Every structure is written in structure tokens, then in C-alpha cells.
């Protein structure tokens, strides 16, 4: 199931845009911006195919982490189509940046850096770089779009809008690139939350098909994206004291700027505590947590699902489709903030400060 597919039955303004991009001297960076279900991916697919048919080299940067076309999900991905395609889901990514969630409101910095880094890589090989973005255009999404435009400095920023709803955003981004406004097509269809969830389910399932369990030595590969493992390990007396005070089973803990513990909580026992002094992570929140294998350049080799951590031996068991030789290239295992099963069922999102 895909929300967008290639079509040449488009409004006249799309053809005008295609002609204009074809006549520019590359590399030309084009950022597509619009609200949810405004047709950004459909437009990208149309432009990419039209440019390829005219003999231009095209790169696609897919940063719509909530409705990802290029696998894996919860990353920003770069692909170089070698011919016409009907949907971005047909493309294989050559580089990825790990975000770790399908709801990036708390990760606007990472989203901006990801688009900048992959756009720079793309511009080295492509005549036109097409950048798809999320439909998140208000609140933190407004700032995220501004940061992306400020870093990337796109040659053209295309806004898809219905009735001028993006005027404020357009004004904010105008200093960073030439703006073009297109009307949302009358054929654009809104998708329900259930439909979007089903699209994501299929993407997760497809990515994790054929996965195997690998053991990761956390003394060799640095755990990142979390306060866990930072500081010195707790001594037995500290573990016993925290366990006694809160009636927790403390499975692991560290002392840095504050105490951080992984715990299992007895039913019916809950006590308040100062988060400036103590951070407590429920052990079951780590189960099926998305993690990214990060290489020495900060890019994502692929993702996996955390199945178990042996804290005493510093070993993590991760389900991933990556081959062992790819896993061995990782220098960091970065913790995400979405929990999901390999069947595609999403178990929930974690807040950034939860880990």
C-alpha cells in the first residue's frame, strides 16, 4: 500500500515547474513543503520521472519519517533512481540518517542535520536533488522547516497549499531560496490515521522480513541516544538503597550528573522522586525499541529492534536484517523512541527525555 504513485495527469503548474527545473544548471536543490496529504510525494515522483526522461541525474532525499517511502522507516534516506519509478518505495537507499521516531517534533535539530548532510552527498552526483518533507508545518514543524531551509539553502522551495495556509511559513523561508507556490490538486485525497498507520505497518514488516538476531558487544559499540550507560556503575549499596526506598527491582544503574536506573516496579508501589536527582527507566520500555547502527561518519547502516540487554555482560540482542559484516562496521548503537514489532505493529512512542 502506497499513498503516492506516478502519474502524468497533473495540473498545468506542475508541467511549468518541470520545464523550469529542466532548464537550470545543476546541481539544483528543490525542497517540497506542504501539509499532510497535500501531494508532496506524488509531485516528487512526477518531477523525478520527468527529469530522468529528459536525461538528468536525479537524487531523492526522503525525510517524511512518518510516511516513509524509502526504507528503513524512522530515518532520512537518500536514493539515486537509475530509471523511471512509480513510487519512492521502489527505490533503494544509498545513505541514511537515523532519527529513531516517526513523530519528529522533539528531533527538529536531527531532522535538519539529516537533510543537510544527505543533500550535500546528493549534490555531488546529481543534477537535481528533490527533497521530500513531512506534513508537519505548524508549531515545532514550522521551526523544523526553517532550520532545514537555512542549512540546505535550496535553489527552489515549492509550497503546496490550498488557501494560503502556508503564507507565514513561506515568508519565513523566502530568504533561503526561490519560492514557488502550487495549488493542492483536486485529486489529492486525505488519509485517515488508520490508513497512515497501515502504510507504516507494511513498511516495518517489509523492512524486517528475513531478519536475524545479532549480539552486540556494548563495550565495543558505544550505546548512544540515551542517558543509560553514562557515568560509573552503581555500587551494590547504592542499588540496595534505591531498591529499598522505591520498592523497585533495580536491574542496572549509573551515577553521572544524576542517578540513572533501569527498574522493574512492583504493582501497587509508586513513589515520587526528583528527576533532577534520579532518572528511572522501566525495563519493559526497552523491549522492541528501535535502534540504529551508526557508522564512523554518523550515518545509519540500518536499524534493528532491541530484544534484550544483559546489563552485567554489556550485551544487547538486536533483531535486524543487516548482515553481520554491516553490523561489524557500526561504532554506535543509537537508541530511538518508537517501539515496534517485526510484524509491523507499533507499540507506542517514547518521549525524548524518557531514555
Characterization of the model:
The chain is an alpha/beta fold. The protein folds into two domains: 12-192, Rossmann fold (3-Layer(aba) Sandwich); 210-355, no CATH class. The protein contains eight helices and 18 strands. It has helices spanning 12-22, 40-53, 108-123, 140-152, 167-173, 193-208, 236-246, 324-327, and strands at 28-34, 58-62, 75-79, 95-98, 128-132, 156-161, 178-183, 212-217, 222-224, 232-233, 248-255, 259-265, 278-282, 289-294, 300-310, 315-320, 332-340, 346-349. A seven-stranded mixed sheet has the order 4-3-2-5-1-6-7, sandwiched between helices. Strands 8, 9, 14, 15, 16, 17 and 18 form a seven-stranded mixed sheet that branches. It has a four-stranded mixed sheet with strand order 10-11-12-13. The radius of gyration is 22 Å and the shape is elongated. The mean pLDDT is 92. Its EC number is 2.7.1.78. InterPro entries: Clp1/Grc3, CLP1_P, P-loop_NTPase. Polynucleotide kinase that can phosphorylate the 5'-hydroxyl groups of both single-stranded RNA (ssRNA) and single-stranded DNA (ssDNA). Exhibits a strong preference for ssRNA.
Distance between the termini: 33 Å
How much of the sequence is in beta strands? 25-35%
- Mean pLDDT comes to 92
The main pleated sheet reads as: 7 strands, mixed
Q: Note the total helix count.
A: 8
How many β strands by DSSP?
18
The count of domains is 2
At CATH level 3, the topology of the largest domain is Rossmann fold
Strand order of the largest sheet: 4-3-2-5-1-6-7
Q: Identify low-pLDDT runs.
A: none
Whole-angstrom Rg: 22 Å
What shape does the CA trace take? elongated
**Considering the protein shown, what is the CATH homologous superfamily of the largest domain?**
P-loop containing nucleotide triphosphate hydrolases
CATH uppermost class of the largest domain = Alpha Beta
What class would the helix/strand composition place it in? Answer: alpha/beta
Q: Assign the CATH architecture of the largest domain.
A: 3-Layer(aba) Sandwich
SSE pattern? HEHEEEHEHEHEHEEEHEEEEEEHEE
Percent range of helical residues: 25-40%
Amino acid at each position: 500500500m502506497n499513498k503516492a504513485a506516478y502519474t502524468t495527469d497533473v495540473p498545468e503548474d506542475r508541467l511549468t515547474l518541470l520545464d523550469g527545473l529542466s532548464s537550470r544548471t545543476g546541481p539544483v536543490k528543490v525542497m517540497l513543503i506542504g501539509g499532510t496529504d497535500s501531494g508532496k510525494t506524488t509531485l516528487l515522483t512526477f518531477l523525478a520521472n520527468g527529469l530522468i526522461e529528459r536525461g538528468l541525474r536525479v537524487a531523492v532525499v526522503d525525510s517524511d519519517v512518518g510516511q516513509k517511502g524509502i526504507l528503513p522507516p524512522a530515518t532520512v534516506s537518500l536514493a539515486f533512481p537509475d530509471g523511471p519509478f512509480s513510487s519512492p518505495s521502489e527505490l533503494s537507499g544509498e545513505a541514511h540518517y537515523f532519527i529513531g521516531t516517526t513523530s519528529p517534533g522533539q528531533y527538529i535539530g536531527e531532522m535538519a542535520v539529516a537533510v543537510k548532510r544527505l543533500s550535500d552527498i546528493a549534490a555531488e552526483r546529481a543534477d537535481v536533488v528533490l527533497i521530500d518533507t513531512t506534513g508537519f508545518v505548524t508549531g515545532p514543524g514550522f521551526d523544523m522547516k526553517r532550520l532545514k531551509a537555512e542549512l540546505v539553502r535550496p535553489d527552489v522551495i515549492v509550497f503546496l497549499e490550498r488557501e494560503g495556509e502556508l503564507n507565514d511559513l513561506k515568508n519565513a523561508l523566502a530568504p533561503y531560496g526561490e519560492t514557488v507556490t502550487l495549488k493542492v490538486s483536486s485529486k489529492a485525497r486525505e488519509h485517515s490515521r488508520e490508513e497512515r498507520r497501515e502504510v507504516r505497518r507494511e513498511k516495518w514488516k517489509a523492512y524486517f522480513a528475513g531478519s536475524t538476531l545479532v549480539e552486540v558487544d556494548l563495550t565495543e559499540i558505544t550505546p548512544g541516544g540515551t542517558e543509560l550507560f553514562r557515568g560509573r556503575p552503581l555500587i551494590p549499596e547504592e542499588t540496595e538503597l534505591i531498591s529499598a526506598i522505591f520498592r523497585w527491582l533495580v536491574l542496572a544503574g549509573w551515577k553521572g550528573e544524576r542517578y540513572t536506573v533501569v527498574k522493574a516496579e512492583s504493582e501497587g508501589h509508586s513513589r515520587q522522586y526528583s528527576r533532577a536527582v534520579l532518572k528511572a527507566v522501566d525495563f519493559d520500555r526497552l523491549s522492541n525499541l528501535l535502534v540504529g547502527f551508526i557508522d564512523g561518519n554518523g550515518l545509519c547502516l540500518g536499524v534493528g529492534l532491541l530484544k534484550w540487554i544483559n546489563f552485567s555482560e554489556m550485551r544487547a540482542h538486536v533483531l535486524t536484517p543487516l548482515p553481520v559484516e554491516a553490523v561489524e562496521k557500526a561504532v554506535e548503537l543509537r537508541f530511538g523512541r518508537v517501539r515496534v514489532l517485526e510484524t509491523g505493529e507499533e507499540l507506542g512512542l517514547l518521549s525524548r527525555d524518557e531514555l
